[in-house]
Amino acid sequence: MEKKIKKSTKKISNNISHARAYITATFNNTIVTLTDNLGNTLAWGSAGAAGFKGARKSTPYAATTVVEKIARSARDIGVSSIEIYLKGPGPGRDSSIRAFKAAGLNISMIADVTPIPHNGPRANKRRRT
């Protein structure tokens, strides 16, 4: 007896007009996730998934390429305006915002959600001289 494996695919509705873009810009990669207002993922991409390898993943050009791909899929879904949540110190921060603007999407809000320690871990002991 052979069991048939049913592959489940989620149907994305085409009437979403407002979405959220979460951009994680690290020193090694840039990851972009497009979600609806409930947090369900509509599309995602990263510099590595776009075909960049090694040091080229951490460039502003790679981030721009990723955002253009995400913006294209957002247009297909019907998204017209987005909220952008930036996280991380990487070089893809500014270029990803510019790419969303260049793609014709209306940016309603930009928020920096980079975690900042208020006290942080215990510091190393003082160096002896």
What is the element layout, followed by pairings?
Elements: E1 18-25, E2 30-35, E3 41-46, H1 60-77, E4 81-87, H2 92-102, E5 106-112
Parallel strand pairs: 1-4, 4-5
Antiparallel strand pairs: 1-2, 2-3
Helix pairs in contact: 1-2
Keywords: Ribonucleoprotein, Ribosomal protein, RNA-binding, rRNA-binding
InterPro entries: Ribosomal_uS11, Ribosomal_uS11_bac-type, Ribosomal_uS11_CS, Ribosomal_uS11_sf
GO molecular function: rRNA binding; structural constituent of ribosome
Structure description:
This protein is an alpha/beta fold. The protein has one domain (about 20-110): Nucleotidyltransferase, domain 5 (2-Layer Sandwich), CATH 3.30.420.80. The protein is built from two helices and five strands, in the order βββαβαβ. Strands 3-2-1-4-5 form a five-stranded mixed sheet, with helices on one face. Strand 1 (about 20-25) and strand 2 (about 30-35) form a beta hairpin. The longest helix has 18 residues, at about 60-75. The relative contact order is 0.20. The mean pLDDT is about 90. Part of the 30S ribosomal subunit. Interacts with proteins S7 and S18. Binds to IF-3. Keywords: Ribonucleoprotein, Ribosomal protein, RNA-binding, rRNA-binding.
